[in-house]
Specification:
73% of the residues lie in helices and 4% in strands. It has 162 residues and is mainly alpha-helical. A two-stranded antiparallel ribbon has the order 1-2. The protein is rod-shaped.
Length: 162
């Protein structure tokens, strides 16, 4: 009888040790998987940010918002032409809501307006893409706010004190 108690105790100890080792291994694997996910998210965020700032339309819109004028470099017909900050309101107006007048019809779809509208569309699509990455926790909201706060103020998303 004493031998069977000792064997049961040894079996219990080995089972407990195996269980403890399994829990330890599970925890280590979970931490490693979390670190890997964090690295992948950081790389994805870095790639998206790099692509965002390298986009010709994004750079055009950011320069236009920041300096009040910018040279357009995308389409051959308008390449090198300087656009003024006063151009976007006409280009970005909701055309189907405007009263049909001869003056508006002449100005509505110029090449310059279409270029500005296209650049702003692309810029806003990029911002929606980044918002999607924030929603799914690929990019943190704090990091985004720090990186884009200047532009968010220019776009009116963050109210200015004055």
């Amino acid at each position: 009888m004493p031998d069977s108690n000792a064997a049961a105790l040894i079996g219990l100890a080995l089972t407990a040790a195996g269980f403890a080792f399994g829990l330890y291994q599970y925890r280590m694997n979970s931490e490693q998987a979390n670190l890997t996910r964090q690295r992948e998210r950081a790389l994805a965020a870095s790639d998206q940010t790099k692509e965002f700032f390298e986009d010709v339309d994004v750079r055009f819109v950011m320069r236009l918002l920041d300096y009040g004028n910018a040279q357009f470099w995308k389409e051959d017909t308008l390449k090198g032409r300087t656009f003024d900050i006063r151009d976007p309101p006409t280009a970005l107006a909701v055309h189907w809501k405007l009263e049909p007048t001869e003056e508006i019809e002449k100005k509505t779809f110029t090449d310059q307006n279409l270029a500005v509208r296209s650049a702003f569309d692309n810029f806003l699509l990029w911002l929606e893409r980044i918002e999607h990455l924030i929603r799914y926790d690929v990019i943190g909201t704090i990091g985004f706010g720090e990186l884009f706060s200047y532009w968010l103020v220019l776009l009116g998303e963050i109210p200015q004190p004055r």
